[in-house]
Amino acid sequence: MAYNGPTNDRPAPGPPRGGAAGPSRGHGHPDYQPPARPPRAPAPGPPRGYGHPDYRPPAGPPPGPRPGPPSGQRPGPPPGPSRGYGHPDYQPPLGPPPGPGRGYGPPNDQPPFGPRRGPAPRRSSRGPRWGLLVAIGLIGLLLSGGGGALAYFMPALTAAVSSTGQSAGGPVQGGLTGNAPAALPPSAPFTVLFMGSDNDSKFTADGLLTQSMILVRVDPVAKHATMLSIPRDLYVPISNGGSNKIDAAFIRGGAATAMATVSRDFQIRIDDYVWIGLKGLVKLIDLVGGVDVTAAGPVMDDFYPADVESTNPYAYERVAVLAGPQHLDGVHAMEFVRSRHSDLQGDVGRSKRQQAVLIALRAKAKYLNPSDIPDLATTFSGEFKTSIPLTRIRSLLPLATAMSDPAQVKQVFLDGAPYYSAVTLPAPVGDALKPNWSAILPLVHQDFPA
Amino acid sequence: MSRGAIVAAALAFAVLWGSAGVGVYRLLGSHRGTIAERAARPGEAGANLNPALARLPGTIYLVQDGALYRLQKGRFTALLGAGGWGQPSLLPGGQSLVLMKRDPTGFSDLYRVDATTGHTQRLTQNQGRGAVQGIDPGGQLVTQYWAMFPRASADGTQLYFTTDRYKHVRCCPFDVTMRLAQMPMSGGTSTPKFWTVDGVTQTDTHTEDGDYAGGDSRPVPVADGGLLFVRYAYEGTTVTSQLMLIRQARGPAVQLTAGMDRCDEPSVSPDGQRVAMVCSYGKQMTSLEVAAFDGTSLGPRQALVTGVQAAQPVWSPDGTQLLYVAPVGITGHFQLWSVPAPKTLPTPLPTVKPVGRGRTSTPTPTVQPAAAAPPAAAVGPPPLQLTQNLDFDATSPIAWAA
Q1: Contacts of B11 (CB under 8 A, 6+ apart)
Q2: Which one in A78, A284, A326, A428 has a CA-CA gap of 20 to 30 Å to A121?
Q3: Which chain B residue has the Cα nearest residue A98?
Q4: Quick one: pLDDT at residue A99?
Q5: Could you write out the DSSP letters of every residue in B146-189?
Q6: Do the Cβ atoms of B232 and A141 come within 8 Å?
Q7: Which residues in chain A land under pLDDT 50?
Q8: Mean pLDDT over all residues of chain B?
Q9: Cα A377 to Cα A375: distance, rounded to the nearest angstrom
Q10: Who among B173, B214, B333 is closest to A323 (CB)?
Q11: Which residue in A92, A322, A325 is closest to B309 by CB distance?
Q12: Structure pTM?
């Protein structure tokens, strides 16, 4: 098919020349304006049609300047601004009728696409014009379909731009970004720091603690993951100066500082981070239809913060998540992972519940398909940030599907002594956990290499 | 071509292209995963039921989304609409039920319900009655209570349940420890009789501040007047659950399963000689297990179902099969399953030796040592899935009347 119409992305060489070799260019555009020169006389030689495959050489008299409509046909509009409709076979171009000065020329003018040199009988113009219309229609269909798809995925594209590929200074090793190779081969194991924050109205955007910090190391070849929960009250040196509870590193410099702090203190390499807000977690779990977990014991809390669906962010409520297997929606899953007043182990007990929900989420996430991405993006609006580029996320999705066996996930906890001891430090730190690095590091380095 | 035809053609194009754009948008939308698909309600037209459901004898009571449903001859009917209902249990004769109604503001009460008419009678009053100065920043939080897992005595005059009514708000308001309680079925008392306290101590003295693990829950009356129940406690830094037996209020409780096996949700067979339960062994998956019960101890457990999140086993009135719920498919909703119950089980070990807990040394049964994994599943007919797209409450026991 010679005619490519407006989809041809080759630059227009200038005013159209009828019968020129190659596709005609630019004629399909509604703003097309023909050259101001008069039509050329037919060139000798075989007629060169419009390029449409259905084009047939004309059988009638050669075209020429037509002073008026043939007998029996309605007269066309008078010459003037809307010239060009006078020909009885004239087909409207793509889009709305041309406005003043945008027609195909005088009433006796030929549509400018295609040759003008050869004979151009009436029939010769009808076939190509229908073909043009079909082509324009198809192109329009493609464009409008693409527009529909674009509109569908627009939230995902917006979120992808705003949430993924966040700058965190690159991988960190020993707390320094320059120490780690910038990029790993796709098959190499990698470590991601997952962080979760209470981000209700009690907190400002730049004043968030990371109540949950979980290191996840994934081996794509072995299809194995290891999860290590970091106690939020661990009193550690912060990478950009001073010491504090490790959950305060995020306040001191965002994700980059949190990554660098964990990397330096635990002496491990961290490649990327994922941060999720409280409401994002609720929405995500609801989006996947809830998660199935088995609660080892009841989680009952008389002073659970009622700061998600309450107008008072300082309010409390009583919650009771019962023991045993159950299907949790977003709100109840959040209660399950967030309550710590009711747990002898406090934050450590909570970390165990968080890992259980994370594993259950992974089990559900493998059933998501590309059409779910916009909902996912809407869900995560403002509640999710990661340094992992979108392309990398896409390449990791099959890995989530491949890791369906719970045995492929190892859970590691810093479970009290000898890993840390409780201390009370001067305000504003207060109660904290003093790490015993000589016990922590050997445990961590079993699964998270330095 | 006339101007009208041109306009018509332009309009046709506009409609065609607009339709194409909208069509692609909707087509993509229609391909979203069914992962969050809403479950059908029991009894509604879209409920997908196995015909075998009609062969279940008697009447079964289940809970979905806070509504109580009755299942008879394969047909579900709603007995109580959505309202926080759960944990139904039969009264002797099967004409009435006791169940829990959970209020979204953070308390629950027990009700007696006529199994035919659905008429309800409240038995407890657990709504808060004002704040505790300096303790209760939320208002009424520590003056309202939970009452859960009601069970009637064999003669129907007494009600056993789990509650946090006894609190230590002055010293340790964060500790919400459940304990076993008893009150007359007629209600009218604000002070139930406690069978256990704190799950740790035998007295009302709160000695284990912050030692919260859940406490004692799910009382099941047994033949000699004692209670089979579940104790949540710590072994080291690990939360465990185990089946326990207590013969009298405030008496010493003895363990029937090892804590690290994490057994829970006991159900005693109609003849009282077998106990079904689910055990998780610290994993997310559970196994449905049964063991012989001689009134004192359990025999070796036999697994009927493994590798799923099985919950809430209940015996058929004739003791030949068990119903339970377990999730199915990508939605994760819990469906109803049945599995044949073994007619014979290994008898409990005859050895009885003291395993003291409490102040007095009491003869207690030998407990099977903790296992890292469930026993191999018995070879027998596979479980039968009875529902397809419902969503039963997996924390709510199932009641099955003859």
Answers
A1: none
A2: A78
A3: B6
A4: 41
A5: -EEEEEE-TTSSEEEEEE--S--TTT-TT---BEEEEEETT---
A6: no
A7: 1-116, 118
A8: 84
A9: 5
A10: B214
A11: A325
A12: 0.74
